[in-house]
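Sync notes, pocket subgroup
Present: LS, DG
LS reminded everyone that the earlier model was apo-only. Rerun requested with magnesium ion included. Inputs:
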Amino acid sequence: MQKLIMLKYGELSTKKGNIGLFLNTLKENIVITLDNLDYEIKFDKGRMFVIPHDNFDLIVHKLQNVFGIHEIVIAYEFADNTINSMATNLLDLIKDYEFQTFKVITKRSNKSYPLTSMEVSAKIGGILLKNIPKIKVDIHHPEKIINIELRKEATYLYFETFKGKGGYPVGVLGKGLLMLSGGIDSPVAGYLSIKRGVKLEAVYFESPPHTSQEAKNKVIELAKKLSLYNNNLKLHVINFTEIQEEIYKNIPHEYLITIMRRMMYRISEAIAHDIKAKVLVNGESIGQVASQTLTSMSVINEVVKLPVIRPVACFDKVEIIKIAREIATYETSILPFEDCCTIFVPKHPVINPELTKCIEYEKLIDYETLIKKALKNHEVIKITSDYQKNYEDIL
Ligand code: ATP
Ligand code: MG
């Protein structure tokens, strides 16, 4: 008998055409997550197994943080699939668990097995009833479900499962560029897109000396926390000072934010193009501030061709904060350092900006040259998995 971990990937298994890519990516992500641990991985028709050689519980715990896994099953593999042998093994395995009601579910993919699944369940159930005092069968709400899988290659018993993180394996849907500010919303937006299989890089716009080193450190810290879910993370830091000052000097103040955000979008799209990201991701939430009215969003969005994913667009702040707490970014996000938007916020930002005015105002600055310069000087901070060891307590 061998104790191993069977992984169930729910949603994933519906992606028939892509299953090879999905499984390979999932496997790669597991290898990164289980770095330094002693185990092997095997595949068996639509199932993936992790066989720990050591640290069984730690491996189960770590797998609970890998996207794309829906259920983690502690399974026992047998060669001998006679009723007697299965029942003896099961009685031995289950003796440490307390339960009053149970049911047996048998799956028989080995069609040459002499009994039907119903017959196997009934026989095994009968033996349990005889041998364990005071237990009863409950078909509808059993405390313990005992699963038997009769496969050609082997037979599996399992009755203990843990919930996985769900979603898709990171990277399976390609790459995205997250606009990461020091706020609460954008790290949550990043996390939610990683969960859908998008591998992220991030861009942060800083405006020294108007924004401090502490503000930048805060974003680096958020990027480190996100890197735990993303396997690693590249943070592109753009010096936005000159562009922002030019806007501030030359453009009517009610349009400061609109034009500034159009510049951020343009730069983000250029970076996305360089790194082959297919989408931009940001933390905009409908109606939260003047730049997030539908008119503002469409006027800002107008400068880019890439799709812009806004995972928290329809969440209110309470819902966003709940996720921020779950992923441990909240404490960092609420640190009080100004980001570049808050410093240049006008008293009365326009709520319904007009595109024609934006285009007219933008002629007042040589933004193309400024953007080129900002892109040329941009800094890249690589957050690697070495860092993650310090953060294992978050997960
Ligand atoms: P957040 O809480 O994420 O900072 P916010 O509510 O403060 O969002 P805005 O400042 O309008 O909203 O920003 C909207 C989105 O634009 C942010 O969620 C982020 O994705 C992006 N963004 C804003 N400022 C920056 C910045 N300095 N660098 C990178 N992206 C930014
Ligand atoms: Mg912000």
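DG: The chain has two domains: 2-163, 175-391.
LS: The pocket of adenosine-5'-triphosphate (ligand 1) is lined by residues 179-181, 183-186, 203-205, 282-284, 288-289, 291-292, 339-341 (CB under 6 Å).
Action: DG to write up.
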